[in-house]
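User: quick one, sequence for these C-alpha cells?
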C-alpha cells in the first residue's frame, strides 16, 4: 500500500467523468467523496467495483454539522464562564422575539408582522421558529486584544474598589506597559470581559477543540473544554458522538455505523440530521469507507497545501488513513 495517487476523476457530469474511471479497468475499489455524480460515473464505468466513501471527506463533512450544533447550544455552554452583562444587541433580540410572538399569538400573520415591526420577512420567520428567546442569543465572540495581559490586575482592582473609574485603571495599566487606548479599555470593561479568567471561544473554535485529539490540546485548553461540555447536556452528548465516530474511522468498524446513527437520533441533535441523511443515502459506500483501508487523505492534504484552502475539521481526533485508492 502506497501513498501514490493512482488516478483522479475529472470534474463535471457523470458522462464526462466516465472515461476517467474507464482508464483503470483492473480496479476493484474506487475511493470518492459523497458526490452523486462521481458515484454514477463509477457505476457506469466499473459496475462491479466497490465504491468507497473517503474517510477524509466523511470527517470534513461532519465538521460543519458539529459547528451548527455548537452554535445552536451556545447560550447553554456559555454559562460555564462567569456571568456577564447583557449587551444591547442581546436586549434587542429579546425585545424582537417577544414582539413577534405577541403578534403571532394574536393571530397576526408573518408577513403582517414584518410590516408592523419593520423587519425582513426572513428575520421574522427566524424569531417565530425559535421556541424560546435564548435559542437566538449568542455569546459575544471576542478576539485577543491588548488588554488581556492586564485582566488579573483589573479584576483585582475592581474587587478591592468596585467604583474605581476606568480612567484610573487606564493610568495604572499604562504604567505596567499597556499600549492601547482608553476607548479600548472602556469597550473591554463595559461587557464585563475582565471578570472572566478565560476568553470565551467562538462556536467554530470550540468545534475545532471537540474535533481535535485530546492529547493534542494543551492542559489549560482541555480543562476549559471539559468545563464547557459539562455545563450543557447536549454538548456532552455531541462530544461523545464525535469521539465515537472517530473510533469507527480509526478502528475500521464500518459495521457499527447503523448503531452510531441510531445513537445520534436518540440524542436528538437536529443539526446532525442532514449529515445522517447523507450517510444513509450513501450507506454501502460509507460502510466500505469505514471498513477498508483505502483513503484519499494524503492526496487531499497535498491539494490543501497547494491551493491554500483551509481544511478546518481534518486536524481532529481521527485523521483519515494515509492509504489511497486501490488497484487490482
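Assistant:
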Amino acid at each position: 500500500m502506497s501513498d501514490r495517487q493512482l488516478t483522479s476523476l475529472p470534474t463535471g457530469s457523470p458522462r464526462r467523468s466516465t472515461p476517467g474511471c474507464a482508464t483503470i479497468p483492473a480496479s476493484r475499489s474506487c475511493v470518492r467523496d459523497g458526490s452523486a455524480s462521481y458515484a454514477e460515473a463509477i457505476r457506469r464505468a466499473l459496475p462491479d467495483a466497490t465504491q468507497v466513501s473517503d474517510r477524509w471527506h466523511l470527517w470534513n463533512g461532519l465538521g460543519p454539522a458539529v459547528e451548527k450544533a455548537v452554535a445552536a447550544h451556545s447560550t447553554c455552554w456559555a454559562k460555564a464562564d462567569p456571568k456577564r452583562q447583557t449587551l444591547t444587541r442581546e436586549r434587542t433580540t429579546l425585545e424582537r422575539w417577544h414582539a413577534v410572538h405577541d403578534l403571532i399569538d394574536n393571530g397576526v400573520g408573518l408577513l403582517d408582522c414584518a410590516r408592523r415591526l419593520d423587519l425582513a420577512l426572513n428575520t421574522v420567520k427566524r424569531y417565530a421558529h425559535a421556541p424560546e428567546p435564548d435559542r437566538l442569543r449568542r455569546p459575544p465572540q471576542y478576539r485577543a486584544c491588548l488588554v488581556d495581559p492586564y485582566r488579573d490586575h483589573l479584576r483585582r482592582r475592581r474587587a478591592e474598589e468596585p467604583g474605581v473609574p476606568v480612567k484610573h485603571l487606564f493610568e495604572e495599566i499604562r504604567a505596567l506597559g499597556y499600549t492601547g487606548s482608553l476607548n479600548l479599555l472602556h469597550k473591554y470593561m463595559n461587557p464585563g470581559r475582565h471578570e472572566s479568567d478565560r476568553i470565551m471561544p467562538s462556536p467554530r473554535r470550540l468545534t475545532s477543540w471537540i474535533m481535535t485529539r485530546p492529547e493534542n490540546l494543551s492542559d489549560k485548553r482541555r480543562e476549559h473544554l471539559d468545563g464547557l461540555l459539562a455545563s450543557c447536556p447536549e454538548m456532552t452528548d455531541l462530544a461523545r458522538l464525535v469521539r465515537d465516530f472517530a473510533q469507527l474511522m480509526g478502528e475500521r468498524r464500518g459495521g457499527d455505523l447503523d448503531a452510531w446513527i441510531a445513537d445520534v437520533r436518540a440524542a436528538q441533535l437536529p443539526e446532525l440530521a442532514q449529515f445522517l441523511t447523507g450517510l444513509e443515502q450513501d450507506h454501502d459506500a460509507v460502510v466500505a469507507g469505514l471498513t477498508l483501508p483505502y483513503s484519499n487523505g494524503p492526496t487531499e492534504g497535498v491539494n490543501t497545501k497547494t491551493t491554500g484552502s483551509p481544511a478546518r475539521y481534518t486536524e481532529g481526533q481521527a485523521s483519515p488513513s494515509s492509504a489511497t485508492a486501490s488497484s487490482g
